[in-house]
Amino acid sequence: MSRLVHVTSGPYAPPAAARELTARSADGARLHVEVHGPERAPAVVLAHGWTCSTAFWAAQVRELAVDHRVVAYDQRGHGRTPASPACSTDALADDLEAVLTTALAPGEQAVVAGHSMGGMSVMAAAGRPAFRAHAAAVLLCSTGSSRLVAESTVLPLRPGRLRSRLTGRVLGSRAPLGPVTPLARRILKYATMGPDPTPDMVEACARIVHSCPRAVRHAWSHVLDGLDLDHAVAQLRVPVEIVVGGADRLTPPVHARSLAAALPNCLGVIELPGVGHMTPVEAPGPVTGRIRSLAAARIPAVPAVEESA
């Protein structure tokens, strides 16, 4: 299980959950789930990406929990969810289904937002019964369905076999990330963020990413390297909005355009100039705003509880 390391003050410090749940996946894996906000409010489910945790969504949770019920969970081996030998897109889909059925009432619908590997979880689960029963709309942030290594521009080389081979080795490295040092912050900023993130954005991301165990990071890197969810995109039939950073080196805008072309009901692509891969942290206002707008448009209003006479 990841060491719980994240910032403890400022806008990216994760707020305390109102409730904590455990969702049990199809293979028995136990997933840590946090619930924030009023019980009868419109529901939002947040799925984080590779090497991250629920802390990654701190800015969204803080704003949305005022008038939404926000459900966030840790992917396998991340945050407070134990590692599992099962690392696959099927496991990602199983886990998202388990969270939806555990945290939501039967028939209750939610906006599901996925960042990076969280977006891949959404795509993998698109044809599953629980996903179709509970997903009213989707926000995909900084993600793709295939060719992640081939399209990555983390290494400043011309596209081709050499760049893909070297990128795969870098992203799949077993080397420990070590403590969060000034050099570590610079490397992480270059690889995952735009040119001008604030210091607190860099610090928040560095602490979250560095807390992910290297064995977990390595295991999931193989899944991302061989990712092919193109067939699943057509199954994602609910309304979908896409957010991507114009300076994203890990999942460049080419992925967003490909998804938009393949999705049955794409509401549009929002490209954020100067923003990198960590869109929920780098652009908290636009990301939170899109989730809020989707919830307002797509989730039926919850009837008020009548008081006894």
UniProtKB/TrEMBL annotation:
Gene3D superfamilies referenced in this protein's UniProt entry, alphabetically: alpha/beta hydrolase
Keywords: Hydrolase
Secretion signal span: none
Residue stretches making up the AB hydrolase-1 domain: 44-285
InterPro entries, sorted: AB_hydrolase_1 (IPR000073), AB_hydrolase_fold (IPR029058)
Source species, domain of life: Bacteria
Gene Ontology terms, MF aspect: hydrolase activity
Name the UniProt record assigns to this protein: Alpha/beta hydrolase
The organism of origin for this protein: Streptomyces pimonensis
